[in-house]
Design a protein that fits this description.
Layout: H1 4-11, H2 21-37, H3 42-52, H4 55-66, H5 71-82, H6 86-96, H7 103-109, H8 115-124, H9 133-158, H10 164-171, H11 173-184, H12 189-208, H13 213-228, H14 235-249
Length: 250
């Protein structure tokens, strides 16, 4: 069973002053409004955030619907854009895995992998015993997941009051928050290089291939940051570098 003490500790961690909850909520308000504008019902909009729970994936879903893509193409597009979460998962799992915890908790918690919940865990995991971190992580994920769903509902009903510029502004709040959070914790060479090189390689690769610029820029920037960064870097650091560079380019 899930340890309720650490679950609720994770759940209420979203209330901290440096929490990404507000930025996450703002972005999903824009998603809710966008989904309504392209013809989704309230139930479909809620179901979308319920299942996808990721801002870029939701945007890809909306854009694919607008151009009339087939269901299989939409599925593949959302699946591929959410594959960017893999490096973050690689850096996250060693922090929460414990031998005495059942595997179903880890399968359940996979749905909660997102930049917002990742930031909270990265900032607090040292305060939690390793055997209790998975329960803490599930609490964090549940909180951010619920924020995304309820913000989608708010956005759906606010769609008539939001113009295009307002929706774009709300949508980029979360990436901007993430950039600011990374700038605030630039205490290692590898993370600093990931941010700097990501902002350089992204535009360069865009000139070569707009379709592949995010992936290529993230891979190149993250790899270089890993190779010439701190002397004590490991594969956990490599996951962080690649993810940070890729996400900042989105």
């Amino acid at each position: 069973m899930i340890n309720s003490k650490f679950f609720f500790k994770g759940l209420f961690s979203i209330k901290s002053f440096d929490s990404p909850g507000i930025a996450l909520g703002a972005s999903f308000i824009a998603i809710g409004a966008l989904l309504k504008n392209i013809g989704f019902t309230l139930e479909e909009s809620i179901f979308s955030s319920f299942l996808i729970y990721a801002l870029p994936g939701s945007l890809v879903l909306a854009e694919s619907m607008i151009i009339g893509a087939s269901l299989i193409n939409i599925f593949l597009a959302v699946w591929l854009v959410n594959a960017r979460l893999y490096p973050m998962t690689v850096s996250l799992m060693p922090l929460v895995m414990a031998k005495d915890q059942p595997k179903w908790k880890y399968y359940l918690s996979c749905h909660f992998v997102a930049v917002s919940s990742w930031l909270i865990l990265k900032s607090n995991y040292k305060k939690i015993e390793k055997k209790n971190r998975i329960d803490f992580w599930i609490g964090i994920g549940t909180a951010t997941w619920l924020i995304a769903i309820f913000s989608t509902i708010i956005g759906f009903f606010s769609a008539d009051y939001l113009n295009k510029d307002m929706m774009i502004g709300l949508a980029i709040v979360n990436p901007v928050y993430f950039l600011c959070a990374m700038l605030g914790v630039m205490k290692s060479t590898s993370i600093s290089l990931s941010i700097i090189l990501g902002s350089i390689f992204g535009p360069i690769f865009y000139l070569i291939s707009p379709e592949w610029c995010i992936l290529a820029g993230g891979v190149f920037a993250g790899t270089i940051a890993f190779l010439i960064g701190d002397k004590n870097v490991n594969w956990n650091s490599f996951g962080n570098c690649g993810y940070i560079s890729s996400y900042l380019l989105i």
